[in-house]
Amino acid sequence: MEHSLTRPSEVIRSEALGSDIFRLTIMAPQIADTAQPGQFVMVQAASGQDPLLRRPFSIHQVSGNGTVQILFKVVGRGTRLLAATTKGDFLSVFGPLGKGFTLAKQNKNIAMIGGGMGIAPLLFLGKWILRSGFSGKLIALLGARNSAEINSLQEDFNHLGITTAIATDDGSRGHHGLVTQLMLQHMDPGEEWQVLTCGPYPMMRGVAEICQGMNWPCQVSMETMMACGMGACLGCAISKPNDLHSYQHVCKDGPVFAMSEIVWK
Amino acid sequence: MEIEKPNLRVKIGSLNLQNPVMTASGTFGYGEEFASYVNLHRLGAVVVKGISMQPRPGNPPPRIVETACGMLNAIGLENVGAERFLAEKLPYLIKANATVIVNVLGDSIDDYQALAERLHGNDGISALEINISCPNVKKGGVAFGTNPEMAQKVTEAVRKATDLPIIVKLTPNVTDITAIAKAVEAGGADGVSLINTLLGMAIDSKTRRPVLANVVGGLSGPAVKPVALRMVWQVAQAVEIPVVGIGGICSAEDAIEFLIAGATAIEVGTANFINPRTTEDILVGISDYLKENKMDSIQKLIGSLQT
To answer: Distance from B91 to chain A by nearest Cα, in Å?
Structure first.
């Protein structure tokens, strides 16, 4: 059985995009060939037993020559180790996993709304939407802590021809405030929109509230602790709406859900 | 003498296994989840996620947290229940030609007995593994597995309900695990498997709150291996029935250590989460070890510890 676990994948490039944000380009043709936007990979940060578990990362970009990118902020030991990997290192990368974004058939306008590292899958998504022959309006509303965190990412979106609007916590770039406050500035309520979002829970809750009010369909990408990424450990349970004691699993049922499938509290 | 193909067959009661490598309940789903990575029919047995008579939703999140060389879990025995298991999960395993051991759990002795009766007589189930780490709801929540008398009674009740081979899975959260092992042996168990997870907890110093919603959870992974190895060694000397070793097994070398300590077979648990192919890799590794050491049968390895 040949798949991404058969052998480790080579790191082709390691970039620092700011003081604590990193992007790894990894040679993993089987993943690059089959991945859908919104799907994720499980990456082993060390070859030993500590840290023990793989870390889930949404797929940031794939290329036709077989590379896969992940984008992450250093938040703990696993990401610190990954940040220290360099070109020529090998990592065990398992995937693609989970259920990604889906597009409505009709060509409604699309807004991709990302916050922090939740921006990662939206670049892949944007490219995929453009390649699918989409002819409506496609915009990206991106939220970050500060200008340094978002500069080069914004360029990547603009490079694809996607219109962007930025909100930063400190006002060092774009709107000084929340990314949700950009929605009604950039999304004409007279038009039909579908919204695809990934970011911190409170941000996505804000996005979902506006979408509910405007009657816009919205898909959200959820993040939880995860041990296996493939439906075995059942560690990534989240409540189902209407019955808080009934659970769904982010790794298999998601990570992308319709906003109506999520409990917003 | 070159050993071409060592004999890996082992026996637990009337249960014949083609090799000693099994999956630990709760780490391998219902088998199907792993079918793209593992040849299920090649494993000694697939021990499925613990089944209760009625479906259980499991605990609220967060359910897991990583710890040094291990993880804590408080999944809460989420499972589809006996009827859906028989109708939706078992047929796949039969088609895959897997040897199936069903891990069973209940809140009372009657629960265990009723479940064993329900599972008995279904083609495709080769044995039962009894999880006695669950709290006894009728007796004020004390786990069956921490009291020799209760552990024996559960085993006897299941024994009455079925002539399938019975393996009783023991909790390490006791003062003397050999006392529990002897009790379930007296109750009619064909084997014991150990260890289940060690009770632990994790605290977030920033929020001063427990990390797990359930506050406490079961520790598993390489961190528990030395404890498991010690307990397997002790139990193997205390009982006549076969012992199945579980606890932090990640490699063939780990598995071989358990066999040397006296385990007749082993179960791979948390390692399945990191590399879903671990079981098959271990199987190959055990065979290679026997060849390198010119052993024609795994029986020569089991319990070969010299102290």
So the answer is: 18
ipTM above 0.85 for this complex? yes
Provide the number of structural domains found in chain B.
1
| B293 in any annotated domain | yes
Whether B250 is catalytic is no
Q: Which residues pair with B169 in a beta bridge?
A: B131, B193
Cβ pair A239:B60 closer than 8 A: yes
**CB pair distance less than 8 Å for A235 and B75:** yes
Q: Which domains does chain A have, with CATH numbers?
A: 9-97 (2.40.30.10), 109-221 (3.40.50.80)
Q: Does B57 touch chain A (CB under 8 A)?
A: yes
Of the pLDDT bands very low, low, confident and very high (cuts 50, 70, 90), residue B191 is very high
**Is the residue at B202 inside a domain?**
no
- Comparing CA positions, the residue from B47, B50, B55 lying closest to residue B268 is B47
Chain B contact for A238 (CB, 8 A cutoff): yes
Bridge partners, B48 (sequence order): B102
Q: H or E stretch including A6?
A: none
Kindly report, residue by residue over B120-142, the tens digit of the pLDDT. Answer: 999 999 999 999 987 666 666 56
Find out whether A54 and A8 touch, Cβ atoms under 8 Å.
no
Q: Which of residues 69-128 of A touch B (CB under 8 A)?
A: 92, 94
Q: What is the mean pLDDT of chain A?
A: 94
Q: For position B114, which CATH number holds?
A: 3.20.20.70
Q: Is the pLDDT of residue A4 over 70?
A: no
